[in-house]
Amino acid sequence: MLIQLLAILFCLFAIWRVVAKFRRQELKPAEFAMWFIFWLAVGVAFVTPESLTRLANLLGIGRGTDLVLYVAVVVVFYLMFRIFVRLEKMEHEITKVVRCKSIEEAKTSSKRQDTISK
Amino acid sequence: MKTTAVVPVYNENPEKLAQVLADLKNYADNIVVVDDGSAINSKFKIQNSKLSWLLHEVNRGQGAALQTGTDFAVKDGAEIIIHFDGDGQHNPEDIPALIKPIEEGRVDFVFGSRYLHNKILGIPWTKRKIIHPLARLVNYLLTGLKLSDAHNGLRAFRATIADQVYLSQDRMAHATEYLQLVKKNKIRYTEVAVRVNYHQYGQGLKDGVRVVKELLAGKIVK
Questions:
Q1: ipTM for the complex?
Q2: Which fold has domain B3-221?
Q3: Model confidence over A48-83: pLDDT tens digits?
């Protein structure tokens, strides 16, 4: 089927990018292994859809596509949570920077005024 | 004892702010104004020798502004820190009574309360009967502290406990966070009767929901 051919080509492209990034040392060995296995699994799932269905049945889910959908929803929610936490932390970091700057500036201006009044 | 009033301001009316600060200087040794990224520059209108003016380049919220002012006051040698709104809601005449329990060494933290007067005046009915009882209940459930008032911005504390009441809530939830920190660190506290002038309605139910949301977000990030 055409979709299988396109998916395999895309997986090969993704694996090639992962290997290239690893060679340029842009990926750590653990990250390389994770992404390599991920794209390999995606390729296998497209070539042999029945393997995905078997895995889904093993987990008590009827169809392979349902398994993919459930996993995708969980992953998306988890990523949203990660982004939310990171944003909150960034907000606190911004506050710290703004606070430090305002206190420093106030100190500097009060020193300047002291010097002028002397 | 050296008292420093921390006044967070955000787009306040310059004339009104100047009046608030002029009244306040009779009741505090130092005043720290924290301009939380206002679009209006009020500084040029105000002449006050006791004043330090801090500027947040961008708006970070009232909790963040109060903490900035508190940090500065502690470094500047304050012994008692007072939080005072810049919009004229609070009365400077309440300050002596507010800081008295700290000066006498009885407590380290004093919350202002609108509900300790014999006659409760000026509080809108919806706030008195619906919003404040609900806020008190939520505060009690979240902090375990049972106070007669909720989210009153007029408070005072001993500078030596400033580290124990360090705010992480940058926005509206800071008032509830103070309760949490007082409870958690077993800080000696009391409430003192104060009056609040209502020029504006202030926080409503929607803000209450936002406070709970901010507190939950704070818990998750911790």
A1: 0.84
A2: Spore Coat Polysaccharide Biosynthesis Protein SpsA; Chain A (3.90.550)
A3: 989 999 999 999 999 989 999 999 999 999 999 999
